[in-house]
Amino acid sequence: MPRTHTDALTWVEHCTQLLAAQVAALDEQAMTDPSALPGWTRKHLLAHVAANADALGNLVHWARTGEPTPMYSSMDQRNADIESGATLPATRLAAWVNGSARSLAVAMDALTTDQWRAEVVTAQGRTVPATEIPWLRAREVCVHAVDLGTGLTFADLPDGFLSALVVDIQAKRGLVAVPDGPLPDVAAYLAGRPHSLTGVPDLGPWL
Ligand code: ZN
């Protein structure tokens, strides 16, 4: 069953709560430990997730006003914001993660039906209707909640989300078929994350 706009909004909310619960349990030391993503501490990852909420907020603004507001002013700026965000104290960073998620939810909630249909351009240069914004956010917040490396796995994410993720990545990677196996493992495999499938080719990183 194809994902709906309501599905995506529900997954954003669900995974935002999952992530917030993990973040609340991290002290300063645990925040500076490595995440599951190469080269990034948990602070880098959380700064990226928070900056993503702000960036998607720019697209919501675009949809609401018609005034072109890109997610990031440049990729250099995007990376610099992650680096500087990663130097914040744990409590400030947690406040940014939670506050940015809340602001995005409020902004999305205020969009009218017509505004949801407005076209915006993603950081990858794709022109999409604003209804794609919750899916972009769901992908980021759900997958990175696992990448935080605090014990969550793909099996902790909603099945509907995992199915939609498999469809999305299969198309993006141009794969004619996906391997058989438990849904969380297939999704993790396609996303380039640790999985328990055997005899499958290495796909390389994804998001
Ligand atoms: Zn990301």
Structure, described:
The chain has 207 residues and is mostly helical. The protein has two domains: 5-151, Up-down Bundle (Four Helix Bundle (Hemerythrin (Met), subunit A)); 153-192, no CATH class. The protein is 59% helix and 3% strand. The protein is built from nine helices and two strands. It has helices at 5-24, 28-32, 42-65, 75-85, 90-109, 113-117, 133-147, 159-173, 183-190, and strands at 119-121, 127-129. Strands 1-2 form a two-stranded antiparallel ribbon. α8 (159-173) runs parallel beside α9. The radius of gyration is 17 Å and the shape is globular. The two termini are 24 Å apart. The structure holds zinc ion.
Q: Specify the overall morphology.
A: globular
Figure out the total of helices: 9
What would the average pLDDT be, to the nearest integer?
Answer: 96
H-E order: HHHHHHEEHHH
Task: Sketch the major β-sheet.
Answer: 2 strands, antiparallel
The CATH homologous superfamily name of the largest domain equals dinb family like domain
The figure for the number of domains is 2
Strand order across the biggest sheet? 1-2
The proportion of residues forming helix, as a percent range, comes to 55-70%
Q: Indicate the radius of gyration in whole angstroms.
A: 17 Å
Strand content: under 5%
The number of distinct β-strands equals 2
CATH T-level fold name of the largest domain: Four Helix Bundle (Hemerythrin (Met), subunit A)
User: pLDDT below 50 for ≥5 consecutive residues: which ranges?
Assistant: none
Bound ions, cofactors and other small molecules, one mention each:
zinc ion
CATH architecture grouping of the largest domain: Up-down Bundle
